[in-house]
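Good morning N.,

You mentioned wanting to compare the apo and holo forms, so I went ahead and generated the holo version with fructose -6-phosphate. This is what I fed in:
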Amino acid sequence: MCGIVGYIGTKEATPLLVDGLKKLEYRGYDSAGVAVLEQMQRRISVVKTVGKITNLEHKLAECMPKGCVGIGHTRWATHGRPSDVNSHPHQGCSADFAVVHNGIIENYLELKEWLVKERGHEFMSETDTEVFAHLLEEFYEGDIVNALRKTLSKVHGSYAVGVVAAQEPDKLVAARKDSPLIVGLGEGENFIASDIPALLNHTRDVWFVEDGEVVVLTKEGAAILDKHDHEVNRGVFHVDWDAEAAEKGGFEHFMLKEIFEQPEAFQKTLSGRIQEGKVRLDELNFTTEDVERWEKVFIVACGTAYHSGLIGKPLIEEFLHIPVEVDIASEFRYRNPLLNERTLAVFVSQSGETADTLAALREAKAKGATTLAITNVVGSSIAREADYTLFLWAGPEIAVASTKAYTAMLIAQYLLSVYLGQVKETIPEDKARAILEALRQLPEKAKQLLAQKELYQQLARDIRDAQSIFFIGRGYDYNLAMEGALKLKEISYIHAEAYAAGELKHGTLALITKETPVIALALQKNTYEKTLSNIMEVTARDAMVIGLAEEGDTEIAKWVSQAIYIPKIEDIVSPVLAVIPLQLLAYYTAVERGCNVDQPRNLAKSVTVE
Ligand code: F6R
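and this is what came out, ligand included:
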């Protein structure tokens, strides 16, 4: 998804902007560009290109714009294919303004027609964003903030925008609605960005900009203005991640680093939340009346976050004794779900910016449901709009494929379900105790699993040439199998499918041959024998089977080509550990196949379009 950076200060802007853009690469992009205000000449120089930031650096090496104010952008195409001319920044006819934009201007065609037909503007690109630059030009009367306000009043849709104007070389202005934007506060310099990693080399003090607000930066100061142009007194958020946390830190890829960060992430997600046998979630503070009022729970999310919800569902049903539905966010709104004040609607999202999840949250809120966000990103739209938020505290996740955020989402849902069960007094004490004890053991047990990486490298060599791979399991294992299949396909591009193990014989078994590896999860004791029979069904068709079982299971090794053992843990908590081998297998298979692990083709980290 698009990334924005902006700088105003006393240093050369171009290298700073390029550095910031590099830190936003994880968001996915297809082109990049910068606009720098050459203050003496009151001129804006734009350099932009399709492709990776290295392409931009090559162009900049030939003509580096000089100046201490500028904006930069990485684009992920929505309106208009990836091309040099469609890349941002965009300018109007006179080149007096430059604009970078993340989001979608929904009424751009109508505005473009008015600008072309009635006002004689000429357009260069196919983008919605270019309309923005022409509108600024149209409304500019010597005050860029006024021109920005007028422009914002004309556009419908979502935006985070950064703007520089040649006539006002001592200002950088910005605004947001439904797309992330932060301000970085420095000494004699200030910044805007889509996300914190872009700023960490320069400042740790940030403001989160809210919808409808306009930002005015000079090198000496920064102000956020509300829609009545009153200055907002926004609290400073001090980022205490070390710079390392947003970098690869010695690992070959962010994904591998993030897989290995899981023991620490587990610790953080759990931190302070289990006390004397009780779950303590201060940020929720639900009363017994609140919890008793709910007759139904929805869990709504996309992709990996949705998979975490599939595991959350049986937990909440068991501990709260009420039905739970799990929905894909992009489907949820369109089926008119039964939402009212007796519903708890839980929205799970690593980024907190996923457009479909945000839209579903708004729908639930409008219909009177209590909304609860589970997210990793402080200041994200979903976190800000939900009635309650449970943060994952997993640290920034850079690789497109989610790993540590998934396991943190699972832990958050174990905590939430036990917490709600304790508030309502519907979870048996011994059950709660067993789960909380299992959660406490997770960091140590995850470290044991991570120590066996050679095994997964070997297995990756065994499966790297497969055309298709099946993941099978029952109950929690089946829910986890879906995540294993998604992880493998998104980064290795091998077709992978998850099946409820008992369902294979109803059709899919026809696809099993000796060329089709099967990853079989057999961790749930209540269905163990049945899963074993399903494993026998596939071995009888000569499939190569990799079995995941609990340490001490001597039976499974007789039926599979390779057994992977998970440290003993309470059955229902086992997905948090069992996903680690699946993540590593996907990772090493992608590496074996020479894929771009951190930025798989066609995918973006944060999906802010519906
Ligand atoms: C897959 C993956 C995606 C995301 C999905 C939702 O590895 O990361 O499927 O889970 O795009 O993203 P968030 O959690 O940011 O809402």
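The chain has a mean pLDDT of 93.

Happy to go through it together on a call whenever suits you.

Best,
F.
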